[in-house]
Every structure is written in structure tokens, then in C-alpha cells.
Design brief:
Blueprint (H helix, E strand, L loop, with lengths): L2 E5 L3 H13 L4 E6 L11 H5 L14 H6 L3 E4 L1 E7 L4 E6 L5 E5 L2 E4 L3 E3 L12 E2 L4 H11 L6 E5 L3 H12 L3 E6 L10 H13 L3 E4 L3 E5 L6 E4 L3 E3 L2 E4 L3 E3 L30 E3 L6 E3 L4 E3 L4 H15 L13 E5 L2 E7 L2 H6 L4 E9 L10 E9 L5 E8 L3 H13 L4 H4 L16 H7 L3
Parallel strand pairs: 1-2, 1-7, 2-3, 7-18, 9-16, 10-11, 10-16, 11-12
Antiparallel strand pairs: 4-5, 5-6, 8-17, 13-14, 14-15, 19-20, 21-22, 22-25, 23-24, 24-25
Helix pairs in contact: 1-7
The structure holds flavin-adenine dinucleotide.
């Protein structure tokens, strides 16, 4: 009987375990998860903190008991501290009892995700300085932010987690400041799009402190102030969201190939350089369809798909990931933002001869009520007009339009072909020339 050992029990790990179990009922599946929860949607955490979701259990897709009913052996609060590929062995730490023991595998799935980056700033150990990564973090952050005396909230880092938390904190009635080292937020989007998102945040009372570097936290027991290179800001609560790194420190010295940032190097079948060891999700790289090389794009989209492919291949299959486009979306108050494929910076980095358009149109014709604007930016290869990337922002329908671009980019469509593609039209939904057509037909 084949024994699969899975390290990490959320998206990639449990997708692999479930797929393998479906394909091979007899396989022994053992999961080690260092946290207290399995298989939950971390993407829902900001909406639990804000109170839009009143019960964290709704974010749990399947419980330990449900996985056990399928015949898996699940160990929560157990951390893998070492992997020895030559002996097909792992060292496990029982986080409750504190003891170490060894376990063996025939095949190993590494799905340990990320760890938030928290630099050793002076005062970082003060109370009320938190991250939002795990369900445990979400539960704790909710408890703290529900306290009435927590008024001034400083968010360090203006990436998508920081911005989602900023909105959650505004909903809870806090004074919110986002401190970002770069000159703009959400840098996976181009400036034309983030300018509009920044305006929206300011409109809802969020203070954006851009181009400043946090240096230390000040307080006696609890955090009271955040000091940057340019100022000092009052804070009852600080959320650190400056980015994540792959949680692969325990693999150092194992011989498993890691990229410079620590991500596990895998092929399109999720195999590492070591026999019978697979990896997927946020701990690993992912193949990019447009860039035609591995990248580091830690998203739930990739983690679920790549985890499932790993499960197929652990069961003896040879499935290849068709590749990510880095498609991602975020809600910023009344606006939705979506992106897919290459950004303009990516096109520059790849030295592509590209052209861009940024077009403002609308979600549907003005003679039907509640028309709202949509801005679409396209990045296309100049010679062929092949669409390389698309970004959109608007109140309604922006993200679903990005999904259309994702399919077009995936299939190497040129802008003029998508500009004539037969999309749906009726006044409540779209114009006869949809925002997609209008943007595509503006590409020269
Ligand atoms: C607030 C927030 C919002 C998000 N929003 C979105 C979104 O809108 N869209 C999107 O696509 N993605 C989003 N994501 C990202 C998404 O949640 C992740 O991409 C996804 O969870 C990655 O799955 P994973 O299985 O690779 O890793 P994880 O979910 O990080 O799971 C890895 C697990 O491994 C465990 N582990 C780590 N090391 C060990 C060890 N040594 N031994 C045992 N267990 C270990 C960890 O405890 C963890 O539970 C969001 C994430 C957060 C935090």
C-alpha cells in the first residue's frame, strides 16, 4: 500500500490528498498540519474581521472529521521540522506535547504555504502588533479590533491583504492609515488603475502614507506609535502586511531545490528535483503561461489547481499545469479591480515591444438605469496585437470582464479578434459594443 505524507493541510495539501484518495482508495494518506484548522479559505479572513461574515466556521471547506471519514490520518498541531529524502523520512514535532518523532513516506507532498514577512523592527514584540495569515490570526484580530478602545489602526504594507484589512477596519469604525514603502499601493496593478483605487480609499477616509519606511514601534506594553523615516503616527493596533515568503526553511539542507526567495522549484507536474517529492501552492513556484517560465505567485487560484494536479501525479498520472496568468481581483470599497497576464512592468522586464491602451467606457448603456464607468487597460504585443495583459477597475462588472481577457490571453488572441467576438448584449448588462470590445478596438 502506497503511503502519502502531506505537509500542510490547507488548499494545496488537501487538494492533493483528496485527489489522490479519489484515484487510489487504498493509499494511506497521513497529513501533518502545524495549525489547528484544515482546509479553510484564508481569502475570506478580511470579511470575517469586518463582520460581513459572522462565523469563521463558514470558511472551513471540510473538517478533520470529514477527511478522517475518507480514511485519511490527520494530525493537527504537528510541525515537520526536517525532511531526509535519502531515507524517505521526516521529523515531526508534536506542538502540544513538545516531543519529536520520525515518520516515513513512499511519496511526500510539500504544501506548507507562506509565512508573513515581519522584519525585526525595534518594538515589534509589543502587544497589538499582528499579521493576518491563518484562521487563528483572523479570530484573534477580530477579537482585538472589536474592542472599542482600539481606534487608530496602522496597516504596514499596501498589498492586497493590507488594503482588504484597511476596508475591514473602516467598516469597524476605526481611523485607518496605510503606510507603504513604495510610491503607490497594489503594485501588481499598473499606476493608472492604482491611482483610481487610491482615490477610492481616500474618499472612504483611509489615510495613505506612501513612500515611507517603518523603522520602529513605540509603546510600553502595547503599541502606541509607529515611527517611520519621515514621521510618527499614533496606533492602538498595527497590522503587518508587507508580504509573504515561502514557508520552506525546514527544507534547507534537504537537497530539495529552492529558488532564491525560498520557493520550491517544481516542474509543470509538481515534481521537485528529488524522487517521489512533490510540492505545490504558495510554498512553490508556478509555471506562467505568458512568460513561459516559473514565477512566484502565491494565490489560492494556483494552490488549488496545482495541488489537485499533484494528487493526480502522486497517483501515477502525468498531468501538466497549463500555466497561471496571475489572474487576481480585489474589492476596494465600491470598486472592483481585476488583472490578468502581464502588467506593463512585466512587458518592460521581458523587453517585449508592446503597446498599451487605457479606455474608459461603461458597464451598460446610459439609457438603462445605474450606468457605471469601467476603465480597462490592455497590454498587447505591438506587431501582432496579441493581448498579453489586461486590468480593469469599476463599480460593476470589471472583474468578470477580466475573466474574458484571461481566456483570450490563454488562447493567444489578438485584440482585434476579441474586439469582434460575439459577446452578450442587452441594455441591462452591456452595450452592443461592450467595454471589452471598445478597449480591444482602441489598440492600434
Ligand atoms: C487575508 C488573505 C486573503 C487572501 N485572498 C486571496 C484571494 O482573494 N484570492 C486568492 O487567489 N488568494 C488569496 N489569498 C491567498 C490564499 O489564501 C493562498 O494562496 C492559499 O491559501 C495557499 O494555499 P497553500 O495550501 O499553498 O498554503 P496555505 O494556505 O498557507 O497552507 C499551508 C499550511 O501549511 C502549514 N504548515 C506550514 N509549515 C508547516 C510545517 N513545517 N509542518 C506542518 N504544517 C506546516 C501551515 O500551518 C498552513 O496551514 C489570501 C490570503 C490571505 C491570508
Amino acid at each position: 500500500m502506497m503511503k502519502l505524507l502531506v505537509i500542510g493541510g490547507v488548499a494545496a495539501g488537501m487538494s492533493a490528498a483528496s485527489k489522490l484518495k479519489r484515484l487510489n482508495k487504498d493509499a494511506e494518506v497521513v497529513v501533518y498540519e502545524k495549525g489547528s484548522f484544515l482546509s479553510y479559505g484564508a481569502c475570506g479572513l478580511p470579511y470575517y474581521v469586518s463582520g460581513e461574515n459572522d462565523d469563521y466556521r463558514k470558511m472551513i471547506a471540510r473538517t478533520k472529521e470529514q477527511f478522517e471519514e475518507q480514511g485519511m490520518k490527520i494530525h493537527l498541531r504537528h510541525e515537520i521540522v526536517k525532511v531526509v529524502p535519502e531515507k524517505k523520512q521526516v521529523m515531526v514535532k508534536d506542538l502540544e506535547k513538545g516531543n519529536l518523532f520520525l515518520d516515513t513516506y513512499d511519496k511526500l507532498m510539500v504544501a506548507t504555504g507562506t509565512a508573513p514577512i515581519v522584519p525585526p523592527f525595534l518594538g515589534v514584540g509589543l502587544e497589538n502588533i499582528h499579521v493576518l495569515k491563518t484562521l487563528e490570526d483572523g479570530i484573534l484580530l477580530k477579537q482585538i479590533s472589536d474592542q472599542k478602545d482600539i481606534q487608530d489602526v496602522v496597516i504596514v504594507g499596501g498589498g492586497y491583504i493590507g488594503i482588504e484589512v484597511a476596508e475591514a477596519m473602516v467598516r469597524l469604525g476605526k481611523n485607518v492609515r496605510v503606510i507603504e514603502l513604495g510610491d503607490r499601493i497594489l503594485q501588481n496593478f499598473d499606476k493608472e488603475i492604482t491611482d483610481l483605487a487610491e482615490e477610492e480609499l481616500r474618499k472612504h477616509g483611509v489615510t495613505l502614507t506612501l513612500g515611507e519606511k517603518v523603522e520602529s514601534f513605540i509603546g510600553t506594553k502595547k503599541v502606541e506609535k509607529v515611527k517611520t523615516n519621515r514621521g510618527m503616527y499614533s496606533a492602538d493596533l498595527v497590522i503587518m502586511s508587507i508580504g509573504v515568503k515561502p514557508a520552506t526553511k525546514f527544507l534547507e539542507g534537504s537537497g530539495i531545490a529552492l529558488a532564491d526567495n525560498g520557493a520550491v522549484v517544481i516542474d509543470r507536474e509538481m515534481r521537485t528535483n528529488k524522487a517521489d517529492i512533490y510540492a505545490a501552492g504558495d510554498c512553490a513556484q508556478v509555471y506562467h503561461k505568458v512568460m513561459e517560465e516559473n514565477r512566484y505567485i502565491p494565490l489560492g487560484t494556483n494552490a488549488n489547481k496545482c495541488g489537485r494536479i499533484a494528487g493526480t501525479n502522486l497517483a501515477g498520472g502525468r498531468e501538466k499545469y497549463i500555466g497561471t496568468l496571475g489572474s487576481a481581483a480585489i474589492k476596494v470599497f465600491d470598486l472592483e479591480l481585476g488583472r490578468t497576464g502581464m502588467s506593463e512592468k512585466d512587458a518592460k522586464d521581458f523587453a517585449i515591444d508592446y503597446t498599451t491602451v487605457m479606455v474608459r467606457s461603461a458597464d451598460h448603456p446610459g439609457y438603462y438605469p445605474n450606468q457605471t464607468p469601467i476603465w480597462i487597460k490592455l497590454i498587447c504585443e505591438k506587431r501582432t496585437k496579441r493581448i498579453l495583459g489586461a486590468q480593469a477597475i469599476g463599480e460593476k462588472g470589471a472583474v468578470l470582464r477580466i475573466d474574458v481577457f484571461a481566456v483570450a490571453i490563454h488562447n493567444n488572441m489578438p485584440a482585434d479578434e476579441l474586439g469582434m467576438t460575439d459577446l452578450c448584449y442587452a441594455p441591462p448588462f452591456a452595450g452592443v459594443w461592450d467595454a471589452i470590445h471598445i478597449a480591444c478596438n482602441a489598440v492600434k
